[in-house]
Automatic annotation (TrEMBL):
Residues 69-116 form the Apple domain. This is Apple domain-containing protein. Residues 13-53 are annotated as: Disordered. InterPro entries: Pan_app. Residues 15-27 have a biased composition (Polar residues). It comes from the Bacteria.
Length: 137
């Protein structure tokens, strides 16, 4: 049985009906046109699979964060309870050691959402539990 998830990218712009310059053709599926004309509206981009650090960095260089991507490992500390992805991004940006972050949805690891700051960008995977982003300073 194969489970297909959709990866959503936000804070970037799409060209035509697909995410710009998206790497790794075998794992990537074209994104249908967004329902919204807002350039920051979520846009689908990937189906299930493992993403290399280069693929993650490439996506996140063009978008503020990517929904349905988990970057496991390379944690700077244990998870921090946070109310939203924006808070997680701010915590990472404030820590000069933080290269990336993963926000884990409420109810997955704890009742509240958790923020995991990363020391670098390890391989990631498409996973509906999480949203990930790069440090923005």
């Amino acid at each position: 049985m194969s489970l297909a998830l959709t990866l959503w990218v936000t804070g970037g712009h799409a060209q035509g009906n697909s995410v710009e310059d998206t790497p790794s053709g075998d794992q990537l599926q074209p994104a249908p046109p967004a329902a919204s004309s807002d350039p920051d509206a979520p846009r689908p981009g990937l189906a299930e699979g493992t993403l290399s650090p280069g693929e993650i960095t490439g996506l996140l260089a063009r978008h503020s964060h990517v929904v349905n991507v988990n970057i496991p490992g390379r944690d700077l500390q244990t998870g921090i309870p946070v109310p939203d992805t924006g808070t997680c991004a701010l915590l990472c940006a404030a820590d000069t050691r933080c290269a990336a972050w993963t926000y884990v949805n409420p109810g997955v690891q704890a009742d509240s959402a958790m923020c995991w700051k990363k020391g670098d960008v390890p391989p990631g995977r498409v996973d509906e539990c999480c949203t990930s982003g790069l440090a923005r300073r």
